[in-house]
Model the fold of this input.
Amino acid sequence: MMRASGLTGLAVIAAAFAACAPSLATMQPAHVAPKGHFQATAGLEVGIPTGAIVRAIDAGKTLSDAAAQGSLTADQERQVFEAGVNVLASPPSAGPHLALAYTPVERLEIGVRYAGNGWRVGTRYQILRHDEAPFDLTVGAGLSRSAYAIPVGDVIPILQVDDFTRWTVDVPVLVGTSRSWYRIWTGPKLLWSHFATALRLSIPGGDTELASFEGQATYVGGQAGLALGYRHLFFGVELTLAEVFGSASVTATSLPAVRPVDFSGFVVYPAFGLLGEI
Done:
């Protein structure tokens, strides 16, 4: 039976990446700027993983019931453990969304973005234009990397936590239209993400790994956005809804071997902010 004290390694790791959920927001219209022009975004995005939240609430009730009984059963310990992994792998999040894109040649955009505690580089190509077709259509690809460090060694010098690192690949597809006073867009959302970190004991003579955490997730969903303004500056809102298919593995010297934990669920991801085009 897994002892409750065996969760210590997982709890320490939790602090290392509680704010490192991947960004699901796009916050761009369905067209690229004309050649030689820029698009910019400054906003806020919020991630609400409903599955992880529900499992955390259920785990809290389990702990409350166990406290009244004085101990955890093996099934209860497993439930608490899996709820912890769910929160770690798909945590609630909130943060800034800052992006800048440039069109070096007609219809082709390159851009950089800071969101989800990390940087993304990407490109888009506009296949259709609303002045030539019924709507605008863009497709693209992006790669992002986020890393979060926690200075555990400042408090406990012999303990070191590797940076929690997440790599994400996304494929944006947007359909919409725009005029001088509005932009509207919608489209499917697809991302794949991989993450990992570890807790180490650092003493003279070498390092010993105490616990490690690694997993991957696929996000499949859709999004829709609307921005109102005039010519160069707009205020926009966007909502992304995505199903998450993911699993994570935890190993620790204080824990017996456990099977990978499924943290699949549903994510609600609103965003809002200012969109500019110059």
